[in-house]
Amino acid sequence: MNKIIILIVFIIVLGCSGKQPRTESNYYIIKHPIQKDSSGNKVPTGIFYGDHNFILIDSTRIFYHTKNIFRFCGTGIDYTKPPKLSLKPEDLQEITIEELPLFLEKDVTKSMGQNIDAFVSVSSPNDTIKNRAIQIIFKYFTSGKNTRYIVRNCTEEELYVTSAKIANTKYDPTTINWKKGFDH
């Protein structure tokens, strides 16, 4: 019996003594902010797009566009539905993870000009973002810039447009049966 215990301890010590490669799990979990409407019903916050919009598909694909419609306040606005951007596949620019830092430094900085204020939207079809781009985007926009951002799930429009772009298929929004729809 003692020999078995000594053998088990020896195996455990031997197995733990070698250095094993460290693997990092880089992911971001989307928090779904909830507000209540005048009737006390829970509704999403209603901010969908920003000056800079990144769509992170799976763990490697990055798409970017600058189309937005700001809706800070107003009557008759349905904050549970995004505004319709009339986004098209050609409005999306695909960026590789290797190109992303230079793209941010060169193209995004150039588009911002003297204005260091920015509103950034990062979206994903999944609640858990496993794309390394999110860390690069956060690092860039939090380094000395007055940036506000939202991390959210993709809108239906973004999903259909990125799917058409990835598959290189025709995109016709009039043939789509939108489940959620748009704010008018």
Structural summary, described in words:
- The chain is an alpha/beta fold and 184 residues long.
- It has one domain (28-175).
- It is 27% helix and 22% strand.
- It contains four helices and nine strands, in the order αββββββαββαβα.
- The protein has helices spanning 2-17, 100-112, 133-141, 156-167; strands at residues 28-29, 34-36, 42-44, 52-57, 61-65, 93-95, 117-124, 128-129, 146-153.
- The strands form three sheets. It has a five-stranded mixed beta sheet with strand order 6-5-4-7-9, with helices on one face.
- β2 (34-36) and β3 (42-44) form a beta hairpin.
- α2 (100-112) runs parallel beside α3 (133-141).
Summary, kept brief:
The chain is built from four helices and nine strands, in the order αββββββαββαβα. The chain has helices at residues 2-17, 100-112, 133-141, 156-167; strands at residues 28-29, 34-36, 42-44, 52-57, 61-65, 93-95, 117-124, 128-129, 146-153.
Key features of this structure:
about 180 residues, two-stranded antiparallel ribbon, about 20% strand
Strand content: 15-25%
Q: Rg from C-alpha positions?
A: 22 Å
Main sheet record:
5 strands, mixed
Residues in helices, as a percent range: 25-40%
Q: Please report the total strand number as a whole number.
A: 9
- Summed over residues and divided by their number, the pLDDT gives a mean of 78
Helix/strand/pairing category: alpha/beta
How many domains? The number is: 1
Low-confidence stretches: 4-25
Query: Outline, from the CA principal axes?
Result: globular
Q: Widest sheet: strand order?
A: 6-5-4-7-9
Q: Which H/E pattern describes the elements?
A: HEEEEEEHEEHEH
Q: Kindly report how far apart the N and C termini lie.
A: 77 Å
- The helix tally amounts to 4
